[in-house]
Design brief:
The structure is a single chain. The protein has 397 residues and is an alpha+beta fold. It is 36% helix and 27% strand. The chain is built from twelve helices and 20 strands. Strands 6-5-14-15-16-13-17-20 form an eight-stranded mixed beta sheet. The longest helix has 28 residues. It is globular. The N and C termini lie far apart (54 Å). The model has no long low-confidence stretch (mean pLDDT 96). Bound molecules: 8-demethyl-8-dimethylamino-flavin-adenine-dinucleotide (RFL) and P-hydroxybenzoic acid. P-hydroxybenzoic acid (PHB) binds next to strand 15. The site of P-hydroxybenzoic acid has 10 residues, from strand 15.
Length: 397
């Protein structure tokens, strides 16, 4: 078999790349180990930067997003028994974020790719990539019927997430890796109950961090900081609701409870691997970098990577190598900004097990600063809604 771009992984990065390439007349084949149903049900991110919304709109993918997405003009930061609003619109000249679940984006992308007649192969196994430094790299896999397939490509995109096979296919000596694991995890639930808040609440509490997010007028998404060694079975529903109520407690405010539809524990890590290219293999999204979810950045980074990669691959196939050569550096600039912001939000809001009282006081001082200084609040708002570097250095030099 033959295609122009072989894409490993049908997450947001791989599916969106396939669509953006098609808009440019470039053929691709997407291979995915999981089933379509699994990809469409996996509970993950929920917050889109305005740049990500614009990208989806400009590429004709925002029909349902525009009807069902919820535009949010800020977040709440809660600490020391008080809840403070950070007003993104006022602080950033009108910028907002949109709450629209990653699962919905994945459903929209799969439906669009299949309607356009694209090749998206689910339920594959034993994916391999080879001949990466030639101009005909190959993508091999066993299809759902058990037949071994080999696709000759012009380029391969590794969009196969943190545990995929593409990053390990690069020789270890060409890669530099930066990694930090945090001593806590998130227990996330999806609950069949209207949100108890109009905007997301990020709460600092002695027992640990909590986040109140949402999925629509009737569905809430909530997270609790837990020990990474804990199992979902350690957390019966009522224990979760009691702990959430404790961490969000505020006089005159009540957390509405309802049936829990999904429950999962996610470890927290920062990870960057560079360069994001080896020969004709290009990494995008979680395959190249992971951020802890406190900054709501992972999905946005994955989308931003493929927005750079699609035109770079198009140019490469037409004989111009320069955008492909610039791909890694162009992405890593944004990746490191998001890595720093996500680390900063995470360490400001979580309780390190065994930490001394100094940690809590430093966090509270930073939270008071962010909620009382316009300059500090503006920095948070600018990063949360999506930082775009000013080529001029914003007149600072
Ligand atoms: P994905 O979504 O992991 O997709 C990779 C796909 O590759 C497949 N795969 C393979 N396919 C073929 N052959 C192989 N050998 C393969 N190995 C793997 C996998 O099955 C999978 O389908 O990566 P992608 O596309 O780079 O997308 C990244 C995002 O999923 C991720 O960054 C976000 O979900 C992170 N994240 C958040 N990001 C945000 O921007 N805003 C948020 O609010 C936000 N909240 C979150 C999050 C992630 C979370 N978890 C569960 C990690 C909240 C949570 C709890
Ligand atoms: C979510 O809605 O799943 C969500 C929102 C904000 C975050 C992380 C996750 O920082």
């Amino acid at each position: 078999m033959r295609t122009q771009v072989g894409i490993v992984g049908a997450g947001p990065a791989g599916l969106l790349l396939s669509h953006l390439l098609a808009l440019r007349g470039v053929d691709s084949v997407v291979v995915e180990t999981r089933s379509r149903a699994y990809c469409e049900a996996r509970q993950r991110a929920g917050v889109l930067e305005d740049g990500s919304v614009r990208l989806l709109r400009e590429s004709g993918l925002a029909g349902r997003l525009d009807r069902q997405g919820l535009e949010h003009g800020g977040i709440y930061l809660q600490f020391a028994g008080e809840r403070h609003h950070i007003d993104f619109r006022a602080l950033t000249g009108g910028r907002t974020v949109t709450v629209y679940a990653q699962t919905e984006i994945v459903k929209d992308l799969i439906a669009q790719r299949l309607a356009d007649g694209a090749a998206v192969h689910f339920d594959v196994s034993d994916t391999e990539v080879d001949r990466l430094t030639s101009d005909r790299p190959v993508l091999c896999y066993t299809d759902a019927d058990g037949t071994r397939q080999e696709i000759t490509c012009d380029a391969i995109a590794g969009c196969d997430g943190f545990h995929g096979i593409c990053r390990p296919a690069m020789p270890a000596e060409v890669l530099t890796v930066w990694e930090r694991e945090y001593p806590y995890a998130w227990l996330g639930i999806l609950a069949d109950v209207p949100p108890s808040t109009d905007e997301l609440i990020y709460a600092h509490h002695r027992n640990g961090f909590a986040l109140h997010s949402l999925r629509g007028p009737a569905v809430s998404r909530l997270y609790l900081q837990v020990d990474p060694a804990e199992r979902v079975g350690d957390w019966p529903d009522q224990r979760i609701w009691d702990e959430l109520a404790r961490r969000f407690e505020l006089p005159g405010w009540e957390l509405k409870q309802g049936p829990v539809m999904d429950k999962g524990i996610t470890p927290m890590r920062s990870f960057v691997s560079a360069p994001m290219r080896y020969g004709r293999l290009f990494l995008a999204g979680d395959a190249a970098h992971i951020v802890p979810p406190t900054g709501a950045k992972g999905l946005n980074l994955a989308m931003a990577d493929v927005a750079v990669l699609a035109p770079a691959l198009d140019a490469l196939l037409k004989g111009d190598e320069r955008p492909a050569d610039a791909y890694s550096a162009a992405c890593l600039n944004r990746v490191w900004r998001s890595t720093h912001f996500s680390w900063w939000m995470t360490t400001m809001l979580h309780r390190t097990p065994g930490a001394d009282e100094m940690e809590a006081e430093l966090q509270l001082s930073q939270l008071r600063y962010v909620t009382s200084s316009r300059a500090a609040a503006m920095s948070l708002a600018e990063n949360y809604t999506g930082y775009r570097a000013q080529p001029s250095g914003a007149g600072l030099t």
